[in-house]
Every structure is written in structure tokens, then in C-alpha cells.
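[Automated response] Your request has been received and processed.

Submitted sequence:
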Amino acid sequence: MTEPAIAASGLRKSYGDKVVLDGIDLTVPEGTIFSLLGPNGAGKTTVVKILSTLIGADEGVIRVGGHDLAADPRAVRAAIGVTGQFSAVDGLITGEENMLLMADLHHLSRREGRRVAAELLERFDLVDAARKPASTYSGGMKRRLDIAMTLVGSPRVIFLDEPTTGLDPRSRHTMWQIIRELVTGGVTVFLTTQYLEEADELADRIAVLHDGVIAAEGSAEELKRLVPGGHVRLRFTDPAEYRGAAAALGSASPDDTSLTLRVPGDGSQRDLRALLDSLDSAGVEAAELTVHTPDLDDVFFALTSTPVPTQPNEPQETVR
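Generated structure:
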């Protein structure tokens, strides 16, 4: 099997008496988007800084881009790119000059630096603004330039720490498309965000960081099934079939006015099959079946309060 792009085990970090990370484990496969969620102050940026060699961990074994972070941090730095919460763009020089400065930092030749800069400026739709001071750019343009600068070194792993903070909805959606295109090109993206919709839209897997530990990890759909409130809504057009279904499904909440039944369930295939089997046994058929699951907002609030729900597909246990 291919080695994960990021693998961290037993990651710990404290600042004085404040424990920020209390033994977390992370595995991010190559060519995927992994999103780390958590409240302000949960330690998301600390995780990014540790994995990108900006600060050291107190404990933990970490491999990034196939390299041991403790033994060969230089190789890790050569394999990654980092875009933080605050733009690294120098507003006093032009977009093109920002790109060429980054090319110099990566020790590219003058010719190669200009070629790479021109390609990336075109890719990120910044050609028309390339020779204007970056201070004149909109927030979305600065973010695009920031990521373009990150790509100068052709990193295989990119850390995006809240990359769309402060952007308007249109710019945010543009950034989402850029992130998807990066992954299509084989890049692995480690994303922290406070926008739950963003994680839902982009991430292959999501982890929720709370009180220094990973409270839960899984796909967006797996996490949504952790939270109570999921149900299946059955709508009938025939009152007789509606009454028959209500009798067969004792746990259903009826609405006589709309001829609908609300049946608790997590929307899984097993759950739906059992429900349909019960309807078949009763000899009734719903005109419409709709699955309703909690969204990531529900998941986030549930996981960042106590008690914390269990991990997907794991036995009931208390998670600290």
C-alpha cells in the first residue's frame, strides 16, 4: 500500500500548564482532502504548525510526504506548502514580483522562475493584475495569489489553515474549485476551517478536535450519523395505506393532516432495508420516501460539548 501523505501518532503539545494536544493520531492518504474542525483555540493551527515543521511537538511520531519529521525536517519542508490564516502576500510589490520572489526562495533559475510564475498566474486568473501592486487586490485575489505562491515549489502536500476566512461567498466558492483542482492533480490537502459547509463540500475525511483530542473522525456522512435526530419521512396519498403503515411502524410519528410518518433512523442501507421490509410485510407502499440526517452544524455542537459521541462503527465508549 502507498504510504500516507501524513501520519502522526501520539502527538502532544503543551504551553506551560495548558495542554493543547493530548495524544492525537492522524492519517491522511495521498491525493485526498482532510479537514480538521474545532472551536477557536482548539489547537487546529498548532497541529498545522507542528506538521509543517514551524514548531516542535512535545511527543509524537510524525511522517509527512514520506519523510520522518524529526529525522529529516528539511525533506519535509521541500515536500510541503503552507498557506496560513493571514496572507503572506507582500502588498508593496506586484503579484508577479511576489511570485518571482517565491521562485528565488526555491532557488529556481531566473528563466525557470519566470516560466513557473507565468503559468501559475494564468492558472489562477491573475494575469491582468500581475503587474499591479498586490495591495490593490481584492481579498479573493490575494488568497488566489497566496496559494499560487505556495505552489511555486510543486509541493505534494499543502496545508491550508482557514484559507477562506473573510472571503465573500463567490470568492469562497472559487477557492473551493481551486482546492478540488489541486487534489485532481495529485496534491494532498490538509484543511482547517471554521466553515462547516466548507468541510462538508470538500473533505474526504473530517476530524473534530476538542479538548486536545480527536472527538470523532470519519466521512461527513459517517459523522452525521453520530448525532440523534436522523429520520425517514414517508408520505402517503392513500389514507388506508397511511393507517396501515402507522400500525406496522410503531415507532413512527404520524401527521394525519399531511398523511406523513416520521420514522427514526440513521439513513443507512441496513436501516432503510428494514423499513422497506416492514412496509412490504404490511402490504403498503409510500408515495414518497425522504431521508433526513443531521448536518455538520449539529455534529459540531454535539461533539464539542460533553459527553462526546462515539466514533463511527465503533463500540460505545466514553471519549475524553
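Summary generated for your ticket: Residues 216 and 314 are 11 Å apart (CA to CA). Residues 231-292 form a domain with the Alpha-Beta Plaits fold (CATH 3.30.70).
If you did not submit this request, please reply to this message.
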